[in-house]
Amino acid sequence: MRMNSRDSLKRICRILIIVTFIFILNSFSDNLIVNAEPKDDALKAVVNFLNAQKNCNLDDMIAHSEYLQKISNVKELYTMMCKKHPLEKAEITDISIVNENTALVSIESTYKDRIFIATSPVIKKDGQWKIIKGIPGSGYIQFSDKVDRDKNEHEVEKAIKNYSTALKSGDLVEIEKYIKFAPHISKAGLEEHFKAISEEKPFPQVTPLGIRILSDSFAIAQIEVKHEYFSTTQNHAVCKENGQWKVIFGHVLTNSAISKSDKPIEIK
Predict the structure, then answer these.
(1) Do the beta carbons of residue 77 and residue 67 sit within 8 Å?
(2) pLDDT at residue 58 in the model
(3) For the CA atoms of 165, 170, 175, 181, what is the dihedral angle to 10 degrees?
């Protein structure tokens, strides 16, 4: 009887271990699926937009994108863009998921007379992923209407100011309250980086010049960083997580063009 009891106990333990292992494995698989779906859906939206642009399918271009600037004639703008500068080919060089509602995509687009290189947000809005078009160059500044600002704009501005104050302290824990690391960024060495910034004299002045709210959880902010002898102005993606707005660190938004001739010089 004693041996039977031991055998029974061993069998029960083995069953519990197997069940636990299966549960962990299923949970891990579910997490992979959850993480994969946003990237697949965001990528699909970008591909659909680029295919529509190449085929000059205006309705599909509008369906899979949102224009940053507040304009009423997006269809006319896309029509002019398709006719004057038809897309020859496009390459998605990178796409990374920031969170379940936000992605960043880098695209190289080739036209007859120019090549565009851009990093743009892709956001989930009203249940649908859309690429954000019309990101201005770093030298362009669109000031926010300080009179007619909504609650989100005030919160984004406050988060950027709090980020600047946290930078001054050099405390990584405090800084991380107001920034979201881009997926490819390694945190190794960041503490030394932020410490060096905090010790800069005079301390750089960080100012949000323009804020554009695109959804309840995403915004684009034009941020000026003024050092003693120079200043920079860049477009940054800002996302909201757990009720807090955060600047996405390590992946600024870009939109640049270079001219393209019929006889490029290839360096091998």
Answers:
(1) yes
(2) 94
(3) 130
Query: How high is the pLDDT of residue 142?
Result: 59
Round to whole Å and give the CA distance between 167 and 142: 25
**Contact (CB, 8 A) for 228 and 197:** no
Phi, psi of 237 (to 5 degrees): -80, 140
Characterize 133-152 residue by residue with b for buried, 16 or more Cβ atoms within 10 angstroms of its Cβ, and e for exposed: bbbbebeeeeebeeeeeeeb
221 is written with which tokens? 């902010």
What pLDDT is recorded for position 6? 54
* Cis before 208 (ω within 30): no
Rounded to an integer, what distance in angstroms lies between the CA atom of residue 83 and that of residue 88?
Answer: 12
> What residues contact residue 66 under an 8 Å CB cut-off, 6+ apart?
123, 125, 130, 131, 132, 133, 214
Three-class DSSP category at 187 = coil
Which regions of the chain are under pLDDT 50? Answer: 1-3, 9-10, 12-13, 15-35
